[in-house]
Automatic annotation (TrEMBL):
Keywords: Phosphoprotein. Residues 54-120 form the CSD domain. GO terms for cellular component: cytoplasm. SUPFAM superfamilies: Nucleic acid-binding proteins. GO terms for biological process: dendrite morphogenesis; regulation of mRNA stability. Transmembrane segments: none annotated. This is Uncharacterized protein, isoform A.
Length: 142
């Protein structure tokens, strides 16, 4: 028989964790839940993010079809989540690209951060695709 769902049990329940495919090189990375996009971010959260300094990092992974990726901060620490709506510029990021971004706290606890206002500062030598180009199955910037 299932355990009753009392308010106390609901408060101590852990939020769902989304794991990537075990064959993925990013199997240890976790998506934030809920995913906060530029469109769903509150004005006050956006204003606080704009007060943060620009920091640098390197794109670890980015999937155009999934709409997100991760950035490894130059200063070290955990990889930072990045949503497609927070990429500024005409090119789709690729692993190895150097980027500048601001950190924005993720609700509800504001303990983790995501990258916002992401700008590619140094492209890798590989051919980069523009956002308006169609997505092809064999494209490296899926």
């Amino acid at each position: 028989m299932a355990e009753p769902r009392t308010p106390e049990k609901l408060l101590t329940a852990k939020p769902p964790v989304f794991h990537h495919n075990s064959h993925s090189p990013n199997a240890s990375l976790q998506l934030p839940s809920p995913i906060i996009t530029r469109r769903t971010r509150t004005a006050s959260t956006s204003a606080r993010a704009m007060e943060n300094p620009m920091v640098t990092g390197v794109v670890k992974s980015f999937s155009r079809t999934k709409g997100h990726g991760f950035i490894t901060p130059s200063a070290g620490g955990e990889d930072v989540f990045c949503h497609v709506s927070d990429i500024e510029g005409e090119y789709v990021p690729m692993p190895g690209d150097e980027v500048k971004y601001r950190l924005c706290a993720i609700p509800p606890k504001y303990e983790k951060h995501q990258a916002v206002h992401v700008q590619i500062s140094n492209l890798t030598p590989e051919v980069h695709h523009k956002w308006e180009e169609p997505v092809f199955g064999s494209s490296p910037a899926k």
